[in-house]
Design a protein that fits this description.
Elements: H1 19-25, H2 27-30, H3 35-46, H4 52-80, H5 95-98, H6 125-148, H7 153-180, H8 185-188
Length: about 230
């Protein structure tokens, strides 16, 4: 059961309306690295999680991402102002002005609708956690790009808060990967044959491999065939 608290996770405000920047913020609402994607991914992963601690982690972070979605949507609301005027948007989606009546709809900065294709759910704990870590990294990158393109101090404060929360999620997922995936799922079958220990030095001159005949790195917690 979910409950909604009318108080935002963190209050948001803007110095003044900026419909053009609202278009950019749409990316973190309905885009492939946005808050809706993150919430749906983590909540969906929780449905199959067998470990109670992992289930709680997915649910807790998924619910917080819904709170981030609410913050982003409210920021978009304030940036759009109260006047429907497509001429205030020089580039990007104009559906907000022509179809949605200034509502922060589930579309990205180009107007493409959100899709469940953005969501990664495999049922394998290691694979899902690695996907979650990557999702948080990409979200941080998008927020950083957004931060560079706005002078509104209040919007920048909101973006910095959300970026820091993504960092917290990233660290939690990294910790979970180290704690819960040893000898499980896809990790159980990793490095079982000689083929998995074969490496090629194909760049001449090479810089990645110092050894001209590179050896497999030592893998901890890998079960070998008897």
């Amino acid at each position: 059961m979910f409950q909604h608290d009318k108080k935002l996770l963190r209050d948001v405000k803007v110095e003044k309306p900026n419909p053009q920047y609202a278009v950019l913020m749409q990316e973190q609402l309905g885009g492939c690295n946005g808050e809706v994607k993150a919430a749906m991914q983590y909540l969906s992963q929780s449905f199959r999680a067998k470990d109670p601690a992992m289930k709680d982690l997915f649910l807790d972070i998924g619910c917080e991402e819904l709170s981030h979605m609410e913050m982003v949507a409210q920021t978009i609301n304030l940036l759009n102002g109260h006047t429907v005027d497509y001429q205030k948007v020089r580039v990007g989606e104009i559906e907000t002005m022509t179809t949605f009546g200034l509502s922060p709809a589930l579309v990205n900065a180009s107007g493409h609708p959100w899709t469940a294709d953005y969501v990664t759910v495999t049922g394998d704990l290691a694979a899902d956690l690695l996907a979650d870590i990557a999702s948080e990294q990409r979200a941080k990158v998008v927020y950083e790009y957004l931060y560079r393109q706005i002078d509104d101090k209040y919007v920048k404060e909101t973006i910095l808060f959300l970026l820091e929360r993504e960092e917290a999620h990233n660290m939690l997922f990294c910790e979970a990967l180290n704690r819960f995936t040893k000898d499980q799922g896809s990790n159980l079958n990793f490095g079982m044959s000689e083929d998995s220990r074969l490496y090629f030095d194909l760049s001449k001159p090479g810089h990645y491999f110092k050894d001209p005949d590179p050896k497999a790195p030592e893998m901890k917690n890998v079960k070998k065939e008897k």
